[in-house]
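YM 10:42: CBM2 domain-containing protein sequence, as discussed on the call
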Amino acid sequence: MRSTRSRGNLRRGLRAGLAAAGTLLLGVGMTAVLSGPASAATGCRVNYTANQWPGGFSANVAVTNLGDPLNGWTLAWSFSNGQTVTQGWGGEFSQSGSRVTVTNTSWNGGLGTNATVTPGFNGNWNGTNTAPTSFTLNGVACTGSPSTGQPPTSGNPSPSQPTPSQPSGAAWTSSDQWGTWTNGGYTLYNNIWGSGAGSQSIWANSYSNWGLTANHPNTGGVKSYPNATRNVNRNLSAIGSLTSSFNVTVPNGGAYASTYDIWANNHAYEIMLWMNKTGPVGPLGSLQTTASVGGHTWQIYRGSNGANEVFSFIRTSNTSSGTVDIRAVLNWIRTAGWYGDVLVGDVQFGYEITSSSGGLNFTTNSFSVSYS
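YM 10:58: structure's back
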């Protein structure tokens, strides 16, 4: 089946059916449990997710401000096994011994109530890589709930299961078909584009923390691709590193894929990285091989929709969080001879929704793209 997508997202066909089996990416999620000060309504929640390999790891630290709005923030924690930060993004990183401190950049210093910011980093480890369990935001310990001078209640909410409905006081909301919002060098798109689509409302606290409620009929054909986009605009040979991390909460029902959509040579090539698929959805083209690249194992499909070539990497098991070495994937395609030294354009991550009858909620808890 074919539909037409606007704003640089071109025509694509989908067919039913793929079996899921395979490898699960390492992820770590937690909420630190300490008490906050008694003088004002303050508090924060942290979701730390990490992907490691021998000697190295990549992590995102999604911190949500549960107290009054902040104009400038400092996040801090300590490692327990001698880990070191080698490269950071989404904040200014410094480290003294085991203590890591991250301060806001010029573009993400404002952190409203219930807003989330997601600094991320690459690091080194040796022997053991225990995730930190205690964090502070502007000196206030992150308990996972606000503190107003009363002892914190037991049973902190799980960071992997946030309330997936639109939060109050979101920085941006839209129900427009092509609603867009630019934040921190990223652009968010509501992006309802399929024939016979229903309704869809998107909200965002930042490029890294956003979600939507979608109500699309149970019929064939993709109805929408709400996404966050970062433009790279570099030739593949000039990219030293290109990675992305994500953490999402998605529904059990409906038909959709949580997927990256990467564009090269001015939309001549489309590279899809499916991290999670639910319901009767499948990629365009034919199965070429199964390979492990970029930190994941994929079934790899190649096809064309008549407007551009499509290379679809379907993860052999669903995951709701992880880190992807996108440069490694793009170089794998080049080595296969399917394209040359392409110009890498937009890197998008979102939800390609075929059906979501009754209104289903999708939440991006954290997301970032880093390149050099």
